[in-house]
Design brief:
- The chain is mainly α and about 190 residues long.
- The chain has one domain.
- Helix content is about 80%, strand content about 5%.
- The protein has a two-stranded antiparallel sheet.
- α4 runs antiparallel to α7.
- It is elongated.
- It starts with a helix and ends with a strand.
- The relative contact order is 0.10.
Length: about 190
């Protein structure tokens, strides 16, 4: 406890020794922002308000990366579909279905031979059924491993797809704003050339 109090005292004394005086004239100088007259000030203020409106629109329409990652973890490709990357989402979902389906096919085949192995009485049949079950089981494990790798890649890539979607959304919103030549405001009309 004494060490904490001592370190706090040292920090306070250090801050007091090295503190600089606040310069109100430097802080309140409007020329540092390039506002030589009131017209430039009002233009800067209007631009700031316009950017804030654009940011509000963006915040309403953007997608949350965490939600898309969770969606991709539940169903591969779902996060890509939400991020409007339908081609990649379809490919990843298709790959996952094919890989897991193939893995299940070989697993089912291996279990069929394994059931015959457990019921066999003749030593030759026992060895043959065991060998017959071994290869499909190995293939099943390989396809399952590749399916898990594709699933993990889908989760990772949904982050990139969501970032790309959000960036394109911002670019579209900003471009639409730049292309509007006539703007109606509560104080009247404004026309840009």
């Amino acid at each position: 406890m004494k060490k904490i109090i001592l370190s706090l005292m040292i920090m306070i004394v250090t801050n007091l020794l090295f503190a600089t005086e606040f310069d109100i004239k430097k802080f309140s100088d409007p020329n540092k922002y390039g506002w030589d007259n009131l017209e430039k000030y009002f233009q800067a203020r209007e631009d700031k308000q316009s950017r804030q409106k654009l940011l509000q629109i963006y915040e309403l329409k953007k997608q949350d990366i965490t939600k898309n990652v969770i969606k991709s973890a539940i169903a591969p490709g779902w996060g890509h579909f939400c991020a409007k990357d339908h081609t990649k989402g379809t490919i990843l979902l298709g790959m996952e279905i094919v890989l897991l389906g193939t893995s299940y096919f070989y697993y089912d085949k291996a279990m069929g031979y394994y059931d015959k192995y457990k019921k066999a009485n003749y030593i030759g049949d026992i060895n043959q059924y065991y060998l017959d079950a071994e290869a499909p089981y190995t293939y099943s494990q390989i396809f399952l491993s590749v399916g898990i790798a594709v699933w993990l890649y889908t989760i990772y890539d949904s982050i990139n797809a969501t970032d790309k979607y959000n960036q394109e959304l911002w670019d579209d919103i900003f471009q639409d704003y730049q292309q509007k030549k006539i703007k109606i405001t509560p104080t009247g009309f404004s026309v840009r050339f």
